[in-house]
UniProtKB/TrEMBL annotation:
Primary localisation category: membrane
SUPFAM superfamilies cross-referenced by the UniProt entry: OMPA-like
Name of the protein in question: Lipid A deacylase
Subunit structure, as described in the record: Homodimer.
Record's bilayer topology term: Multi-pass membrane protein
Membrane-spanning segments: none
Pfam family membership, one: PagL
Record's subcellular location: Cell outer membrane
Marked site (Critical for activity) residue numbers: 156
């Protein structure tokens, strides 16, 4: 986990847009092969599409550091990952109340510390793609809090013949600065 924290800090320090970080999020997930925790930094694109009605499409960049714990035949394995993903979000322009619902989807690239999730499951490569779909709400006086459910899938997209894919059901809590 120290390696992930260092990598996130280095990316933020070396990136000129680091001062524009819009939010932070904490994620916990469970799947049939592993459990995971993650910390993400987000940067809003500042662009809106399909703005004629009550809803609009926007998006943000998400830089994530994650730790996985294999949940299968021994020996259990810990993996660490860092990744970046563009995320598209469909949400209301103006909250209809204290809660503002949204739907989102994203796909990104992730580098893992190893290939083996647990004794009998190898992901094939250390480079993986991660895609997710999610539903959530923003809330608070300034809509600064964000709570969502995500389904996330990791796969190497057939780069190697060994490509079992790993799925997670995730709960995510975020704070927008």
């Amino acid at each position: 986990m120290k390696k992930i924290a260092f990598a996130l800090l280095a990316c933020c320090t070396l990136n000129n847009t680091a001062n524009a970080v819009d939010g932070i999020a904490f994620t916990g997930g469970h799947g049939p092969d592993a459990n995971m925790v993650a910390v993400s930094l987000t940067w809003d694109w500042g662009k809106r599409w399909f703005t004629e009605g009550d809803w609009h499409l926007g998006g943000y960049w998400e830089l994530t550091g994650a730790a996985w714990k294999g949940d299968g035949p021994s020996p259990e394995k810990e993996l660490y990952a860092i990744g970046i993903a563009p995320v598209f979000r469909l949400q209301r322009f103006t909250p209809s109340g204290w809660l503002n619902p949204y739907a989102e989807a994203g796909i990104g690239a992730y580098q893992f510390s190893g290939r083996r999730v647990h004794g009998s499951l190898s992901m094939g490569t250390r480079f993986e793609f991660g895609s997710h779909v999610g539903l959530g709400v923003t809330f608070g006086d300034q809509q600064q809090y964000d709570l969502s459910y995500r389904f996330q899938h990791f796969s190497n997209a057939g780069i190697t013949s060994e490509n079992p894919g790993v799925n997670f059901n995730e709960i995510r809590f975020g704070y927008h600065f």
